[in-house]
Design goal:
This protein is α/β, with parallel strands linked by helices. It is built from twelve helices and seven strands. Helix 1 crosses helix 12.
Length: about 250
């Protein structure tokens, strides 16, 4: 059975897709069987990993018809990927069946034994797509930038996690808060890291030791449709992500 990890934060621009792509590429590089699933209508995860997101089945199709999941899987050098595109933005309206919180889990259960890890990239909102990702997952990683605005809305995130635990997935846990775009030389980064520790405590978790340092390679890798590990193996951010990935691989977290 795969370990399923959702990358989540209702705020955009905090490094969710970068983290999802890094985990998929890094775990694949370590020899694991990995499936990355994009449930963000922006489709950035598939694009970042070199997938044609406009043609073929996507996560939109598997939410509507779970039997399409094998057709939706694309094979890449960085693991298997189920991409998304703008069609997924209509999910909130279209997915109105009584069991709509379980649609992604129903599909993923069909392929769960084919993988060691399943990584889910979520949208920057707390909607039915995010809830589906939480219901489907064993654990969450919450990326957060060292900026004051990045700390806002955490109470809403906690409420959503608590609701999912109460009604749909009692085993869901938060692996930790992951600080991204981190520069320890900046006072603000250090101050926000301290506040993030308080937020993590509210969520019943911790700030992960592996803080992802600022690196231009993080922005460049998606433009080349390459995993960060492949595009810039010596970048600071790559080393930081690989440290985190090895802990996940070894079951330390």
């Amino acid at each position: 059975m795969a370990q399923t990890i959702a990358i989540t934060n209702q705020k955009g621009g905090v490094g969710k897709t970068t983290t999802a792509a890094a985990l998929a590429g890094g775990l694949t590089e370590l020899g694991h069987r990995v499936l990355a699933i994009d449930v963000d209508p922006q489709g950035n995860l598939g694009f970042s990993l070199g997938v044609d997101i406009e043609n073929g089945h996507t996560s939109y199709d598997i939410l509507k018809s779970p039997e399409y999941i094998l057709d939706a899987i694309r094979h890449t050098d960085y693991g298997d990927v189920i991409p998304s595109n703008i069609l997924l933005s209509s999910a909130e309206i279209e997915l109105n069946c009584s069991d709509r919180e379980y649609l992604l889990k129903t599909a993923v259960d069909k392929v769960n034994n084919m993988y060691d890890f399943i990584i889910i990239d979520t949208p920057p909102s707390l909607n039915i797509l995010t809830v589906n990702a939480y219901v489907c997952s064993d654990s969450l990683i919450i990326p957060m930038t060292p900026e004051i605005l990045s700390l806002l809305g955490i109470s809403q995130l906690k409420e959503t996690i608590d609701t999912v635990r109460k009604y749909y997935n009692s085993h869901l846990r938060v692996l930790g808060v992951l600080l991204t775009k981190y520069n320890k030389r900046l006072n603000l980064s250090r101050e926000v890291a301290e506040m993030a520790a308080e937020i993590a405590k509210q969520l019943g978790t911790v700030v992960l030791d592996d803080k992802i340092r600022t690196s231009v390679a993080v922005a460049e890798a998606p433009a080349h449709a390459e995993s960060l590990m492949h595009y810039a193996p010596n970048a600071n951010a790559t080393h930081d992500y690989m440290s985190l990935i090895k802990k996940i691989s070894e079951g330390v977290l």
